[in-house]
Each structure stands twice: as structure tokens, then as C-alpha cells.
Amino acid sequence: MSEPAGARLLDAHLVVERGDFRLDLPLTINPGEVVALLGPNGAGKTTALRALAGLLPLSAGHLTLAGREWDHPDRRVWIPTERRPIGVVFQDYLLFPHLTALDNVAFGPRRHGLGRQQARQRAADWLTRMGLAAHARRKPRQLSGGQAQRVALARALAVEPALLLLDEPLAALDAGTRLDTRAQLHRHLAAHTGATLLVTHDPLDALVLADRLVIIEDGHVVQEGDAATITARPRTDYVARLVGLNLYRGRAAGQRVRLSADFGLTTGDRHDGEVFVAFPPSAVALHPRQPDGSPRNTWPATIAGVQRHGDNLRIQLNGPIEVAADVTPAAAAQLRLVPGQRVWAAVKAAETRAYPAG
Ligand SMILES: Nc1ncnc2c1ncn2[C@@H]1O[C@H](COP(=O)(O)OP(=O)(O)OP(=O)(O)O)[C@@H](O)[C@H]1O
């Protein structure tokens, strides 16, 4: 069911031309909603953020927040950055180095017209909420990465922004700090009643923090939806890699899907026509010889690469299809996992998913 237009806080069609590159991104965000914008390098994420922040003008389209036009080139409407009620958090948190944490957070409210005492009070409240009351008088260089990032978030939220823009907010943090900061961020975003756009390369950030994912490639939306739908049914190679699945396109006749002139797979679902077939690397078993007597899909493959992947090894295979397989150290010990080695790959039909590509 589509949302009524009135529920939208942000209503935009961001069209930005930069040389040969064109961003063409319809984007709506409801009050309190967190949307993650994902895409490979050069997809246009930063361009979209800059357009929303008023650092780049739209070439066409429109940008409206709470019914107020911020940018509408056809109507010559343009609201400059400093008059847009936004909060911004960047990956390298860009705090003012010469100001204390408190004064960094008070800076926004001051600029939005609050008196000095009120602004400092609001900043102190935000630092308390972030668990940083004891660090209020510290300068940024006296804070850890995670603390500095929480100050940056407090600074962005202290202006009670209608639109919160988060640009890779956790990317600069080490793994442990990232986990904690992600959990805190989740709490604060849940309480934020404005619209939030989170730009990230990290699928985990998107899955944990966002209500909806918008994935762009080369300036265009390739897939959009909630995390469950996208992780179950990726529609491009980038999205499949993002969610950790092997993905192929082919032509189905019942459970049989032809992926190329001389290769096909039997899948767990029945379809007719163009479909995607997806399965996780953990569904691929490797054998030194052709396994017999099983109803599995099997094919000969050559090891192209081996990487650690959590507690397992992720094996890249060439052959009739390129495929990633996860094997346990125990299974790996029985195979010679060196590039160039020939093996047999097997996938149970029941562990594959097929869904229409149309
Ligand atoms: N100042 C510029 N002038 C012309 N083209 C630009 C400019 N800045 C970026 N581009 C082009 O715009 C496209 C989108 O870049 P953008 O930085 O928005 O991508 P991104 O998704 O943020 O990538 P990344 O993940 O690498 O940060 C790229 O093709 C880039 O080459």
C-alpha cells in the first residue's frame, strides 16, 4: 500500500548533473523514518547528500521538506544551507578542534537563535543523553573516536533538525567501538521524529539502523524496500554481494533454470520465464570428486581465490558459473584449497531461491 502524500516529511526528486554523471533519485522519507542510501563507489550517494544539504543545486526535479520547498529549479526556488533545518554527521566527525565538547554541541542551537545560556543547557542535556556528561569540558583531541562521534551526533540532533543526514557515521571507528556506537545510534534514531538519511557502505549499519533501504547504482535506484525483502531477493550483483548471496539470471521452466547455453540449476521454486536464482555461499558444498547418488546440482569448478570469512573460509570458484562457497576449516582440511585446484561444487535445490526478474 502506498503512503498518503501527507505522511511524507521529505518529498524529493533529486536530479543533479556533474559532468558526464547524472543523479536521478526520487526520494521520500516519512516522519521518524530512517532511510539508508547504499551504492558502490561513484553511485551518487555524496551527490545526493550534498543536494539535500544545499551544497549542490538541483539541475531539475524538486526538494520539499514539510511542505516547504528548499530547491525547485523550474520555479527558481533555492533555500541556502544555513536556512535549512538539517543536522549533519560525517564519518570523520569534523568537530571544531578548539571548542570543548559542550561548545561544539551548543554551536548549532546558538546559530539557530538560542541565547548562550539556553544553548549551553541544551548542549549539556544532549551530552547527558549520550552518556558524555563527564566529558563536556574536553576538547575533541581528548576524546576517543566513539566519544567524538557521539558528540557529533549530539551536535546534529541538538538543533532538532527536520532532516538528519548521516554520512558513513561509523566508518572511522574500530570494530568494538563501532558495535557500541551503532547500538547507541539506533536508540537515538528511534527517538528522532524528523526524517533521517543514512549513507553507508556497510550493509550491517543499514540493516540495523534503517527502516528502508534505497540502493543506487550509476545515479539510479536499482532496488528499494525493507531489509527482509532486499536480503531475500537481490536484483543486481552489487546488492547480492552486499547481502552475501550468489546471484544469477536465467530462464525458468518449472524448477529447472537455464543460466547459459550449457548450464542450468534445479531450484526450490517453480517459475516460467526470466528469473533470478540466489543462494548463500554456505549452501555450496565442495568435494574432491563428483559426488554421486544425490539429487544435488553439481558441477566441476576451479578455485580462483581463498579468503578468511569469520570462522570459515570463503572460496571463489570459476567454472560454468562464478560462485562463492563458504567452507569450515574441517572441510577445508580435506580439500587442497589453492588457486587452480579442481573441485566439484554442489548445491541442494531446496537451498536455492528463484524469483521473477521482470
Ligand atoms: N566535482 C565534480 N565534478 C564532476 N563530477 C563529479 C564531481 N564530484 C563527483 N563527481 C562524479 O559524480 C559521480 C558520483 O560521485 P559521488 O561522490 O556522489 O559518489 P558516491 O556514491 O558518494 O561514491 P563514494 O562511495 O566513492 O563516496 C562520480 O561519477 C564522480 O566521478
From TrEMBL:
UniProt name for this protein: ABC transporter ATP-binding protein
Annotated PROSITE patterns: ABC_TRANSPORTER_1, ABC_TRANSPORTER_2, MOP
Coiled-coil regions listed in the entry: none
Keywords assigned: ATP-binding, Nucleotide-binding
SUPFAM superfamilies registered for this protein in UniProt: MOP-like, P-loop containing nucleoside triphosphate hydrolases
Keyword ATP-binding: yes
One GO term (biological process): molybdate ion transport
